[in-house]
Amino acid sequence: xxxxxxxxxxxxxxxxxxxxxxxxxxxxxxxxxxxxxxxxxxxxxxxxxxxxxxxxxxxxxxxxxxxxxxxxxxxxxxxxx
Length: 81
What we know:
Shape: elongated
Order of helices and strands: HHH
Number of helices: 3
Helix content: 55-70%
Strand content: under 5%
Distance between the termini: 47 Å
Number of strands: 0
Oligomer: single chain
């Protein structure tokens, strides 16, 4: 069994509590930074135009709605039990 050290004085307890708070702040800060980086990358991609080769291949217009293509049919076939 792994033994853990238990602080015996109030100074040790406050020090370990401070370490936990510092770690939490580090994790929260890293999460916020990662989210901001992802948002910036998404906004940058949104501004870029699609290449003409990709745009010419897309034949569906937004008003056509859902289309049952071969790819979708194959997916439905694999999900049947």
